[in-house]
Amino acid sequence: MEFNLVDDEWLPVVFTDGRAGEVGLREVLVCAHEVRSLALDVPSQVPPVVRLLLAVAHRALGGPVDEKQWEAWWEKAAFDKAVINAYLDEHRSRFGLFDAQAPFMQGGGLQALNGKTKSAALLVPHVASGNNVPLFSAERDARPDALSPAAAARWLLHAHAWDTAAIKTGAVGDEKAKAGKTTGNPVGALGQLGVIMPTGPTLWHTLMCNLLPTAGAAGGEDLPVWERPPLTGQWAERMPKGRLDLYTWPARRIRLIPEPDDQLPGGIAVRQVVVCGGDRLALGSGQELRGWMSSEPHSAWKRSKNLERKRKFPLVYWPVAHRVERQLWRGLAPLLARAELPSAAAARDAPTLQGPAVLAQLGTRQRMSALKGMPLRILAVGFEYGNQSAVIEDTYGDELPLPIAVFSAQDEDWREAVLEAVAAAEGAVRALGHLAENLAVAAGCRRQEEELLAGHRERARETAYAELDAPFRRWLTSLNDEDADLDAALDRWARQVRDIIRGRARELLASVSPAAFHGQASETGDDAPVMDAFLAEIFFHRAVHKALLELLDTDGGDGDGPDDPDPTDLEHPE
Fold first, then answer.
1. Which pLDDT score is estimated for 341?
2. Which of these ranges, 111-115, 298-302, 386-390, 495-499, has the smallest mean pLDDT?
3. Which of 181, 380, 566, 570 is 20 to 30 A distant from 28 in Cα terms?
């Protein structure tokens, strides 16, 4: 049974003319300029598939070694067909999904120590498998639905990227296995990251935005998995040799087991698999952690004072994970931070945040010029794990339009304007949360009832952020013209925020108990301050005015907010 990823169809795509289809590696790269987007099963398949395509492109095209070469490729508006074909022909045998000796990203002849296989559903997080039975799942793995070779290839990549950290079955040949199992397995290669990936109007633009200079790669040792010796049951804990090694990191030892099935295209089905522990990133020293950071371009990083203190490292950064309850635009600061890895000797002055290297590269002169005026979107994908990372609790996926100017290495104005817009919205939402809390106190809730008050605050904030979400995305899209008046744009956004937040405040005030207008003592004691709805509203308007003041163009009089006391001098809890 044969299925080769080079020429067999396994990647669902949408072409620029609106047609849908499935293509192999050769066609998707040669015709990348004609592909609008990948149309994969789930958003979390996009990063591992794109990173696979990047690894092929880097090796086939031999670079780019610098931005000058990247610019020359950009001017051609398509990848070199002859070069892509020659590379894929040379390595075609390593892309065979069911090859006996070296199946793609699998261990040839891999067997579990207990001699058993598992349902192919193990590769698909949302499908029941063994003890992992999602709520309301109608499926069981006694006779699991078959995966076609195309789907099996996609979920194979997904497992290497996102698999849980549960105990894995030991593999024959794994000298580290104990009692038939391997323990201490980390999550997949992308599992600890909040993945960030720029995307363009076509797949070719997306790949070009993510093709980073390879000059200085580890002396020719940075190779994708198919240019390395075939995988076996043995695994190693090691540092990545570079980006290509990381893009195709074999985080698991897997074998897809094909069987004849006349009901599926091609007559092949995958119902059983072997999944064992694979290579682990060595992260035990400061040097190893910095090496990981320098090789991984698709994540933002935050300085970890905790790791520096516990491990006595002078300077340590850790990936910034996405928060499933928060839209991407609310966490833009790490994305727009500079990506300059300081030396350990410069730890004292090292910044708290480091942006994704792939976004920082967009700020070079060549890329700024090439991408000017182009609609650019930032894809964010991540997983939230639970129970010692042995289960997936939630997934994160968001996409945000961002003007290319915010990444400029020469001009900070656009970056600062977008961050100011986010900060102003957060300040206004915070004021609304305080209003909800103060109204609850005015209606009789005690300050000591923190859980109850927190519920009032969070409900108000969640509804406000939900209402601000679409307007903020439209506002970002309106900034795509680099000649836009930033002051006018910020003023426009501030007024929109004010209108939305005031609207939510009116709803809160309209629904409050009549007792709130009489007021209640907010604390115990004879001289305890009294909170009522009128005072709560005054505090609210003052706080909103303060949050938006720097963005509003108040020339000629804005008429916003009474000349009342600063709420920080009164009853305005944080």
1. 64
2. 386-390
3. 380
* Beta pairing partners, 38: 13
User: What is the Cα gyration radius of the chain?
Assistant: 27
Closest C-alpha among 271, 214, 270, 279 to residue 243: 214
Token couple for 198: 């720029």
Residue 566 tokens read as: 């600063």
Name residues whose C-beta falls within 8 Å of residue 456's C-beta, 6 or more positions apart in sequence: 433, 436, 437, 439, 440, 445
453, 425, 429, 458: which is closest to 531 by C-alpha?
453
CB 29 within 8 A of CB 55: no
Q: Could you tell me the two tokens for 555?
A: 């020339």
Residue 239 has pLDDT above 50, yes or no: yes
Beta-strand ranges (E) seen in 251-409 are 252-260, 268-277, 280-281, 301-303, 317-319, 353-354, 377-386, 391-401
In this structure, are residues 126 and 135 in contact, taking their beta carbons and an 8 Å threshold? no
pLDDT at 568: 39
Please report where in the chains the tokens 């949302």 appear, as a residue.
126
Percentage of the residues of the chain whose pLDDT score is greater than 70? 90
Whole-angstrom distance, CA of residue 67 vs CA of residue 360: 13
Q: Which two tokens stand for residue 508?
A: 């809160």
Instruction: Name the packing angle between helices 149-162 and 46-61 (round to 10°).
Output: 90
Query: Could you tell me which residues come within 8 angstroms of residue 474 by beta carbon, excluding any fewer than 6 positions away?
Result: none
What's the farthest any 2 CA atoms get from each other in the chain?
Answer: 86
